[in-house]
Amino acid sequence: MRTIQIATTPTEIDRCLPVMSQLRPALIAAEFVSRVQAQQAEGYQLASLEYDGAVVSVAGFRIQNMLSSGKTFYVDDLVTDAVARSQGHGEAMLQWLIALAREAGCNSFSLDSGTHRQEAHAFYLRHRLRITSFHFYLPL
After folding, report:
1. For residue 103, what are the domain limits?
2. CATH number where 93 lies
3. Which end of the chain is more exposed for a tag (fewer CB within 10 A), N or C?
4. What confidence tens digit (pLDDT) does each residue in 23-45 have?
5. pTM for the full model?
6. Whether 87 contacts 103, CB under 8 Å
7. How far is Cα 61 from Cα 110, in angstroms, rounded to an integer?
């Protein structure tokens, strides 16, 4: 049975690291909890999907108001453990997030996805998400 919950305690947050590291390999384990907690102070939430006693999917998200889209549910991070993909966990997490966005009265649901993640793009397109813009980045 799948269960999804918001990670709030340091232990719950830390349990998300092995999966999150697959999306964000530059993360430093010793800094992960404090970085998530700093983001939580800004409205970020971290959800974990557990199956058979293990975290197999994680999602980081926030609700923000934007001139371009109104009240927006923005997904910062969404990843399923590589060994647990194609088993419905990612779909369950995505549907849970969309339901949460609707419940919160959001006008839109959005996320960015790295250009190299073609399998993720196919997944998003299958679930009716559409490519609507480009994201530009400048490291400082």
Report:
1. 2-126
2. 3.40.630.30
3. C
4. 999 999 999 999 999 999 999 99
5. 0.91
6. no
7. 10
